[in-house]
Amino acid sequence: MASPQFNEFCAQVCLMIRWKAAREPVADELTAHLEDHAAALEARGLDPETAARRAVEAMGDPYALGAELDAAHPPTLPRLSRVLLALGLLILLAALVLGFRQHTGLPALSGITPRGPGLPEYPTVETVLREGAASGGGQLGAYTFTPSGQAALTSRARPETGGVVTPAREIQVPITMIPRRFWLPAAAPAWADAVYTDDTGRTGEGFLRTSDTYLLGASGFLYLNDPAPGAREFSVTVSMFGEELHFTVTLDQEVPPQ
Questions:
Q1: Is the pTM of this model over 0.70?
Q2: Which residues, 6 or more positions from 177, have their beta carbon under 8 angstroms from its beta carbon?
């Protein structure tokens, strides 16, 4: 049985949705997400009531969320379904024709499905010092983060006070982000803090940033700032929504001295 706190939150959200047929599936989706979040908090030692309350708080203002969902489920949607279907088929046909003429298959796919960006992020000013691999990822909130599998230690010149130029080093990991619910914005969340521990026992900081937006998600990078010489493997934790996401980054060789 769902928590009374979850039922109350979902009821407040659904009050803002004018299309009645959308209310029940929206409430089911929200309840499932709240239960998943609360279960994760309980696994960390919180009592059920506190876990439920924090899961609800993490969702934000129910009326603001309801207004966003109402915009995604307007009452006119059933009337427009046939028109939208016909329009979609015409667009698909046009894309196929254009693709065959240009020998590129279906070119529009590059703007629909998110792809991990290339390394390094800025090839004209950054140098790749080491290559590597990345694994892990998972779900934060209603979003799924996946590393591309590649990683690179990069270096670029960074001007300091007094005109001194020192190399700035960071590890870059291309990532993609896909929302689990179709009505959620593809590009959010755009930023999250990260911390890491390397195989020598030293710790550092970083962040995860999404930038390029696609129809079905977004792409960006996980960055690890100033990795220490001698380190090769990094265990990374990204925190957001009161939850954690874990990555493992392994370079093909140790970080060289400065």
A1: no
A2: 114, 143, 144, 145, 146, 186, 210, 217, 218, 219, 220
Contact predicate 150/116, CB 8 Å: yes
Report how far residue 1's alpha carbon sits from residue 20's, in angstroms, rounded to the nearest whole number.
23
Q: Give, for 114, the enclosing helix (H) or strand (E).
A: none
Q: Which amino acid is at 133?
A: A
Strand ranges, E, within the chain: 127-136, 138-140, 143-147, 150-159, 165-179, 191-198, 203-214, 217-225, 233-240, 243-251
- Residue pair 215/201 in contact (Cβ under 8 Å)? The answer is no
Q: What is the pLDDT of residues 59-111, one digit of tens each?
A: 888 888 888 888 776 666 555 555 566 666 666 665 555 554 444 444 434 45
- Helix 62-72 vs helix 4-14: angle between axes, to the nearest 10 degrees? 50
> Tokens in use for 195?
């911390």
Q: Alpha-carbon dihedral of residues 123, 124, 128, 132, nearest 10 degrees?
A: -10
184 contact partners, CB below 8 Å, separation of at least 6: 142, 143
Q: How far is CA 165 from the centre of its chain?
A: 34
Cα distance between residue 228 and residue 2, in whole Å: 48
176: exposed, middle or buried (Cβ count in 10 Å: 0-12, 13-18, 19+): buried
Residue type, 197: T
